[in-house]
Structure formats: C-alpha cells, structure tokens
Design brief:
The structure is a single chain. The protein is of the alpha/beta class. It is built from ten helices and nine strands. The strands form two sheets. The protein has a seven-stranded mixed beta sheet, sandwiched between helices. The chain is elongated. The model has no long low-confidence stretch (mean pLDDT 95).
Length: 277
Amino acid sequence: MPCLRDLLDTGERTLSGAEARREAALLLQHMLNVSVAWLVAHANDSVDVIQIEAYRALIERRARGEPIAYLTGTRGFHALELAVTPDVLIPRPETELLVDLALQRIPLDANCAVADLGTGSGAIALAIAKARPHTRVLATDAGAAPLDVARGNAQRLGLGNVEFAQGDWCAALGDKRFDLIVSNPPYIAEGDPHLREGDLRFEPRAALVSGADGLDAIRIIVRDARAHLRAGGWLLFEHGFGQGAAARALLEGHGYREVFTARDLERRERASGGRCG
C-alpha cells in the first residue's frame, strides 16, 4: 500500500517544472484537508484507493493547466483567505499594490465611503474593509455569479461594512458619491497571445479583455467616476505594465489632478490614479 510520500512523489513527477513539488503538496493538502505540518508528520501514512484516485484526478487537471486556485477553491490575498471559482478572476499579488495605495488615502479612523468597481471575488473591497473598519465599502460587479462569490467571502470573514450592487462600472453606483473609487478592470487587448497561456486560458474572458488596446473599460471608468467622487476624492485603478502613459493621459484629459502611476515590486508600472478637483 503506497504512503502519502509516494503519492506526493508521483504528483511531482506528473507535473514537473520548478513549482511541481509545491503544487503537488498543495493539492494533497487540499484533498486531505490538512496543514503542511500534518502532511510532514504523516508522510509515511498509508493511503487508500479512493484517496489515490481523488488525488490523481486533481493532478491530471493541474497537468492540463487548470489553475491551482480553481482546484482548491481558495487564494490568499492581502492577509485574507478568499474563496474563488471560475466565475471570478484569481486575485494576484500585484493587485495588493492597489489596496495599499487606497489605504494610504483612507485615514484609519475616518468614516469614508469607498466603491470597488468590478469586484469579482471581492478581494480589493474586502481587504480595504478589513483594514479600515470605519470605512463603508460598496462592491459592484456586472455579473450575479461574481457577486455571490464576493458576498460569501464577506460573510465568512465577518465583514459588516461592505455592501454589494450589480451593474456595469459606475452605472451600479446610482446617485452615490464616494471619497475613493478603486478598480481592477479588464485591461488586456483582444488577440493578446498571453490569453492562450497559463491560468488566463481558464479565467473569465470578461474580466480580462477590454477592446483592441485593452483600455475600453478604463476609458469608461475615468470618464464616469468624476460624477461619483466627492471634492478631493481619488480614483485608483490597475492596468497593464505598458499602459501607464495612456492611463495618465486619460486622467489628465478628464481633469483629474495629482495624477500619478505607481510601480509594483518588479518595478513595472501597475496602477494609476488622480484626484477630483
């Protein structure tokens, strides 16, 4: 009878690559619902046929390219553990920059109003709500399925300062005004070859692609957000590393001031913003 170490070794060989061992271990932890420490301590435990088949199915799906986050149903983001499904974009480490930029502009004890446009799993909205408990956050999305995922995450995290609304970008905001509007919109250009690679092949296209140059959603958000910002309020959004100059030009063209672009940990232009005069 094989043991857990044997199963892990088989998973690593099937996946191959630099991340094979780590990913094989993550899937084994998920299948058994155990911690890393437990897996190490019980490496010589035997496994039954049902466990072998369940693990083999997960490994085969990963070998075909299915994202780890969709296989395990979770992804960590800004110290939160979020449920994710194929209905939502997988939260990424570089998007934590957008949260940090928002938190820099929200006083710790202030009663501010924040909107997160295109919330998906709720990652940005919930990270802000967790770090700023006096802030009221409205999370919006055009799809009902993503909002269900975000609501579920808010409930599991016990965050009562988040509300949800369905609608396309600023159309979901009604006549409300905010101190800060934040968004991680789709910004990949149609036909970009990266859409046929890696995790992107499995993620919702509507959360990734935005027109011929990838800027269609950003154009709409920059144009419409001013009507929903209080005087001095900020608009912040993520974009592709080659879109910084275009993002700044859009913000300046619509009368935002203090326009800037921030770089991620790899020194790539990743997020831009401006202030409503």
